[in-house]
Q: What sequence folds into this?
């Protein structure tokens, strides 16, 4: 580690605060993103989809028809 | 801009861009940190504490950049009704506020060895503090209004009002500062920045800017998905009630 | 024109009749200024130095206290919907209501200030300057407060949110208002530069704030 002089603790503190703040921000944003994708996937599993998703559906006789959204 | 107006299209592009952007961001930040700690020389006046500048100054720049972005997005939302504009404005606020916070704290930590106190009411830190308060106001307004349409429009108005005020506030704070400290040599960063310090500074600034863009894209994606979830649930409930 | 005057007069009369509103703002102003020395100590030298600042900060807070009534009462009883669809442009409505707020809150507070200046040992020859500066600055306070009031219309805890939104915007008025009053003792000898800037701030807010307030009213009522 380089010698940071007599005020090293302030330099470390500044970088630590920056790192913690950025890490916190990253964590919250990424976690929110993951959560929304999870919820959306859950809804799709339950058969609730968007209108534009129906073209991706494979027609299936055994499963109940997926509920489509009215425009 | 308008080619990205379709949320689905935006999501598709975002999904492609985000991984690459993430790699590039952390690469740049890594290089920047190495330059800061192992290459940059000590300042003749401030010694090694000048290294704090490499996080403080980019954070301050991004706080200001973030607010400008929000103001532009707000104009796009109110005047041109760009569909993703209020998503952009809403998601940029916490990111910008965090950078403002980092700028304030690192500025304070830089001040202690330089001027002996943790807080000094110099023009730049004071202006940054007011900017932070403007961010808090925006976030508070978004949180307080339940109906998202009204929230978006109200926040857009507030952002534009705040943006117009920022130069006025900056001017008044500068004026106030010279009033009370006529012989002001308290310039954070010294009178000039030595070129050998500029490279790490710019690399860190570039890295942080990419970080802002990265987090903003991820947050926008999350917000768009959140609105989809909300819409799906609403329609589902309505259909269930009608059936 | 007649409608404009009628609206303005109505707001002033209503605020006047409510009596408590103006009285409360004045009372709040008095209380804040009175407790400051209790917090800082009775050293008259110190107090006279900080008097302009304390008087202005307390003025800002007292202005904000009564700000949400600018639109709130009319929002509650539906009169605002009538005004929105009425013949007067909404920007003019907002401006008139802001003006009424200034007349019923800003002016009384500004006139009370010298009396409170006595409590803080403000030099008496600064009194005229104090009143003039405050009379010039309070329009900006009322007009910007109206923007905050329209943004937070009908929200819970709107009072605190209003303060959070509006106080940063008050910073320039505060800085130049205090500088005008304390010009003799601190800083440049002439109060004119900050005073003229204060005039400019008030004039600008007179024109621009109603635009923002009207836009915010439309979003709130949609």
A:
């Amino acid at each position: 580690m380089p010698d940071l002089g007599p005020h090293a603790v302030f330099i470390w503190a500044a970088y630590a605060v920056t790192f913690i703040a950025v890490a916190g921000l990253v964590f919250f944003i990424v976690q929110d993103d993951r959560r929304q994708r999870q919820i959306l996937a859950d809804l799709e599993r339950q058969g609730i989809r968007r209108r534009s998703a129906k073209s991706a559906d494979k027609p299936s006789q055994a499963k109940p028809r997926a509920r489509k959204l009215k425009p | 801009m308008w080619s990205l107006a379709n949320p689905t299209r935006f999501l598709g592009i975002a999904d492609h861009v985000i991984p690459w952007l993430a790699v590039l961001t952390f690469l740049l930040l890594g290089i920047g940190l190495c330059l800061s700690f192992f290459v940059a020389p000590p300042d003749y006046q401030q010694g090694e504490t000048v290294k704090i500048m490499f996080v403080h100054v980019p954070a301050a720049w991004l706080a200001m950049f973030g607010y400008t972005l929000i103001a532009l997005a707000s104009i796009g939302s109110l005047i041109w009704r760009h569909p993703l504009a209020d998503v952009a404005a809403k998601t940029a606020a916490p990111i910008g506020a965090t950078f403002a916070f980092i700028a304030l704290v690192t500025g304070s930590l830089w001040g202690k060895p330089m001027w002996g106190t943790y807080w000094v009411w110099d023009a730049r830190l004071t202006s940054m503090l007011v900017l932070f308060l403007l961010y808090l106001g925006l976030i508070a307004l978004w949180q307080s209004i339940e109906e998202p349409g009204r929230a978006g429009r109200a926040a857009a108005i507030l952002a534009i009002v705040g943006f117009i005020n920022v130069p006025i506030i900056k001017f008044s704070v500068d004026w106030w500062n010279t009033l009370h400290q006529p012989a002001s040599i308290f310039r954070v960063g010294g009178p000039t920045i030595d070129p050998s310090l500029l490279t790490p500074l710019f690399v860190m600034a570039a890295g942080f800017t990419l970080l802002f863009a990265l987090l903003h894209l991820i947050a926008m994606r999350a917000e768009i998905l959140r609105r989809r979830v909300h819409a799906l649930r609403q329609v589902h409930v309505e259909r269930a009630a009608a059936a | 024109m007649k409608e404009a005057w009628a609206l303005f007069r109505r707001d002033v009369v209503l605020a006047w009749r409510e009596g408590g509103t103006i009285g409360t703002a004045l009372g709040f102003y008095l209380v804040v200024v009175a407790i400051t020395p209790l917090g800082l100590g009775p050293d008259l030298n110190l107090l006279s130095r900080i008097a302009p600042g304390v008087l202005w900060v307390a003025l800002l807070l007292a202005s904000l206290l009564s700000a949400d009534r600018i639109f709130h009462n009319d929002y509650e009883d539906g009169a605002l919907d009538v005004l929105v669809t009425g013949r007067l442009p909404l920007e003019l409505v907002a401006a008139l209501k802001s003006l009424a707020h200034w007349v019923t809150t800003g002016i009384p507070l500004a006139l009370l200030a010298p009396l409170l200046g006595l409590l803080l040992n403000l030099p008496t020859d600064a009194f005229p300057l104090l009143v003039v500066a405050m009379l010039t600055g309070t329009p900006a306070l009322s007009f910007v407060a109206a923007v905050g009031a329209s943004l937070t219309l009908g929200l819970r805890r709107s009072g605190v949110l209003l303060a959070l939104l509006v106080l940063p915007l008050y910073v320039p008025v505060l800085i130049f208002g205090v500088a005008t009053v304390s010009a003799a003792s601190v800083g440049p000898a002439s109060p004119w530069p900050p005073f003229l800037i204060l005039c400019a701030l008030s004039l600008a807010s007179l024109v621009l704030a109603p635009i923002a307030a009207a836009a915010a009213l439309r979003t709130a009522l949609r």
Chain C has one domain: 2-221. Chain C has a mean pLDDT of 90.
